Amino acid sequence: MEQRERNLFTASLKTVKGTKYGFINKQGEFVIKPVFDYALDFQENGLAIVEEQNRYGVINHAGRYVLKPTFQSINPYSEGRAVAMDDNGSHVINEKGQIITKKPYSFIGSFQEGRAVYSTKTDSDYLYGYLNLLGSEVIRAKYRFANDFQDGVALVQKMDGTYALINIEGKELHQYTKPFISYLGNGLLAFKEADDFEAKAGIMDTVENILVTPTYSWIQPFQDGRAAVNISDDYKNQVGLIDRTGKYYIKPKYMDIMMLGHNRVAVSKAISEEEPFLGANYAIATTNGEFLTDFNFTQVSPYENGYASVSDGKETYFVDKAGVKSRRYPTVNGEGTLTFEGELIQSLVDQRVTYFTRDGKLVWSQNKVIPLNKQYKVVEKKYQPSNHYLVYYPAVEGMMDEKAEQKLNETLLNLSKAEPTSEKQDYTYSADFNVEFYKEQLLVLEIDGYFYPLGAAHGMPSKETPSIHLTNGTIYELKDLFNPGSEYVKVLSDIIEKQIKTDDTYSYVFQDQYKGIKPNQPFYVNNDALFIYFAPYEIGPYAAGFPTFKIPFAEIMNMINKKGEFWQAFH
């Protein structure tokens, strides 16, 4: 498919049906209406991946489906091919939305230099090989592991544990005896003398001429003839920048070094050397070791069109190759990134997307008001006491009872955890919200938070789903849906237990941990059903998120208090 100039841009809109995605033109007008649950940017081939009802498809510039949303995931196109996954496995699709592989595979990587790694499962293990652009197995699956092609070669590990370098036809160019090898690019390999995570790594060329003896804890891929290396044995990194001979251009004493392109690097220094997990500040330097700026930045992005996006904790803007702030392009208050998108500049700052013209004129920003009807609306408010604490919380407006409205909004503020921060903040917290359901006098919101202790393996998500009566501001509990004295806890618990035992969707649930629901169990409703959910780790693994069970009202109608205020609010 021919390459197209970028003239449509992803944009989201908060609605009474949640956040919806569409595409605007360079004037900020929706050309493709915001009807998708999620959307990625249009690629150079004029196609975009979109999501509807937890399934992914591909659309063209006219907003028409080239591939209907039937897949669990679709990776971005590479070399005119994308990888789509369904219940059967992974498939290769072309730009017409056609599946070109003859069968599903356990795994397919992105195409690089006309080849994509694939894997098949045997009785005891996975084997890896390569597909070509026709979706055919051009190198059969016979390797324990395989890397993407780069510079016309790929490093593979054979079933006996040894490594080899192959060309795109699968011919072995060299076999290696080292117990650990990885490809660094520019015709260089990292190697270890022991297959041990803690063993030091050195550098050799593809025919095993050793250039640097094992010295480094890790080595990043080479770019512009340079690579970042770490000589530290613990979490207090000592990162420097070397050439292929191991000569240092930046001494190994920094937290990290990131390649930026244009012979530039971002060098980071820990805010606290004793607690490096608390974060770092960045400086920009050349690949020859000349520092162009001080450690002024909290974020730095790779160079594009001769400019790099940076944040200093208060503002986000572009700097040129000398590290000097650009007066040509816009400066945005807040922390994030700026990117060139066709004729526009996209600002992703403080978790909100905005578009500007190149000279800084505002083209489009996400709405802060969600109209429910002529009387009521939900307004987005922002609370940000520090760079590590950002809360977007909802406020309801339009209630006739001002005191009830004030009390409700104070509760919503508390549910969003808009709280003061400590002087030494060793965590981050962010929160946002959506309208989950709205009908007549009932508004159901979803408030999502994420608490992350700095240095932890992962953070902990939170969710609140208040069901609100818009006339008096009442937030209902689960018991308010049912007749007084009904055994709703037992009935709902039994229904969920049956779903866990009979529906493969819930195979991840730790059945010995499920003990039924609590009287005040978290829930939400829509027009047809009750949804009961549990917190992460409560009855399943962290990766399962919030296990949620749908119970149609038709199954429990005999218990519902149909004359109660809760039910009457939306019926």
From TrEMBL:
InterPro entries: DUF3298 (IPR021729), PdaC/RsiV-like_sf (IPR037126), WG_beta_rep (IPR032774). Signal peptide: none annotated. Residues 479-553 form the DUF3298 domain. This is WG repeat-containing protein.
